[in-house]
């Protein structure tokens, strides 16, 4: 059996979602969140009522998660924002790509007509290249917006694609 | 007497702040907020605990308001975000410029090292030109991000300057 199930996150997924998020924010190189962000605060954010949050379940195990939300209220609410995380042991298996493709489908279903990332850290070349392959363009570059633990102040990209 | 006082907003300023905000969001051409956003919701946003909010008081009358906040949490919290509104009867008097200059001083005092606007509507040429004169550069352009009531989908600029 080898089965990937992409579905809405449920309250009982919280521990598995945290197991994915924790090492990523502890490393502190790819997301804005402080390495010592408490579990409760992080899960309140990731699973917040302003978001549609999903999990990627491979053979019964939650290995990835993403959320969709409006990037702006009201007159800007047709543009989705999203965040994605893949567990360490699931890297390189195409989980991220599958989640991304499914997120586009879901975002369209929810009525969004485009997707915007506000904070893709320029040193995270794996992510930048993945998003470019998936149709995103760099539409903005903010100097020194991320305090990288190793590289110091690092530029951040705004990336965008139509849905 | 002709005196401009720039100071932190107080709870008792709420009505005067709403009088500035209401016609601007009702027009719906320069801010993302829906024209029918209720007073309570809008003031909760503008005077929210995540922000430092100020008023510009000319000869005892509140004619402008702005807020400062971190544009991102944690590893991005050295970059300020800000929003500015000037009452209709105060336009063309330099209140916006004075507020802007003071906001840079305050932002530095609060520890920010740069300022970023995420959502300057490209058709709002008065604002775009003012910010450019005040040292901001357009560092990003998001296609069709604003549903303009007259022009339809309109690009939005990301603007940035060091402090």
Write out key terms for the chains shown.
Aminopeptidase, seven-stranded mixed sheet, 4 helices, alpha+beta, about 30% helix, globular, 7 strands, about 160 residues, homodimer
Give the mean pLDDT of chain A.
96
Per the CATH scheme, the topology name of chain A is Aminopeptidase
Return the CATH architecture of chain A.
Answer: 3-Layer(aba) Sandwich
How many separate structural domains of chain A? 1
Largest sheet of chain A: 7 strands, mixed
Unreliable stretches of chain A, pLDDT < 50, 5 or more residues? none
Question: How many DSSP-defined strands of chain A?
Answer: 7
Count of runs of 4 or more consecutive helical residues of chain A: 4
Shape of chain A: globular
Superfamily at the CATH H level of chain A? Gcn5-related N-acetyltransferase (GNAT)
Beta strand % of chain A:
35-45%
Largest interface: A-B, 32 and 32 residues
End-to-end separation of chain A in angstroms reads 32 Å
What spatial order of strands do you see in the largest sheet of chain A? Answer: 1-2-3-4-5-7-6
- The top level CATH class name of chain A: Alpha Beta
Q: What value does the Rg of chain A take, in angstroms?
A: 15 Å
Order of helices and strands of chain A: EHHEEEHEHEE
Oligomer: homodimer
Helix percent of chain A reads 25-40%
| Helix-and-strand structural type of chain A | alpha+beta
């Amino acid at each position: 059996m080898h089965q990937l199930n992409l579905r809405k996150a449920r309250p009982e997924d919280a521990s598995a979602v945290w197991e994915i998020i924790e090492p990523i924010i502890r490393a502190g190189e790819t997301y804005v969140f402080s390495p010592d962000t408490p579990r409760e605060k992080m899960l309140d954010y990731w699973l917040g009522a302003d978001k549609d949050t999903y999990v990627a379940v491979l053979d019964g195990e939650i290995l990835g998660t993403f959320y969709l939300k409006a990037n702006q209220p009201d007159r800007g609410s047709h543009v989705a924002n999203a965040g994605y995380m893949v567990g360490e042991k699931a890297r390189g298996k195409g989980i991220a790509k599958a989640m991304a493709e499914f997120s586009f489908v879901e975002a369209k279903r929810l009525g969004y007509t485009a997707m915007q990332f506000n904070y893709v850290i320029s040193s995270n070349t794996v992510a930048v290249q993945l998003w470019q392959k998936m149709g995103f363009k760099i539409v903005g570059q903010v100097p020194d917006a991320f305090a990288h633990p190793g590289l110091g102040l690092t530029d951040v990209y705004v990336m965008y694609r139509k849905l």
